[in-house]
Amino acid sequence: DISHLIRGGIDYSFSKNSTLGVYAQGNFGGEDAFEDLNQRSMRSANQLDSLYVRNSTEAEDNGNFEGGINYTFNVDTTGHRFYTSFSYSKDFRDHHNEYYQHFFNSRNEEVASKGLRQLNDRTSGSTFYIFQADYERLVGEKTSMEAGLKGTFGIWERGQEFAQGDEGSDFLPIRNDTISDAFDFNEDVYAA
Length: 192
Description:
This protein has strands at 2-15, 18-42, 48-74, 81-104, 116-139, 143-165, 174-175, 181-191. The chain is mostly beta strands.
């Protein structure tokens, strides 16, 4: 599992009452996994009846990026202020799995009719745009009032491609339309 993170930002004060901030960050990584499994079926005389050999390989790439800008204006020194921000973020995750199955009988002969090869690719991702504006004002010495608006606009993406091969297809994977699918949707949230 390998992951890398980079981030940075800067604030600039136009005056003692107003500040503009900008930031960006990215996180990228990946993971590879391998598994070999031997499943033996034994006879009562402690002799090998059959053997399944299963090999699985998994690989995953993922990452996200986020950037934003914000502005603060202090109307006076008594806590009367205006704040607004906008941010953008995008993330992705691609997962690939390859699976092989071999079967051997009690004479240690491979039986191709019980062999199998599967490919399973899963993807997911999202994109977000977030806007926020707030107004704050002190009411008395220990109380403050705040009003604001926020909008979160999201786009979600999900997908799966599944294919399987056996003796009939010469172990070339054929897409399975029952399991393979893609699903994308938007999600917008408004708050006041």
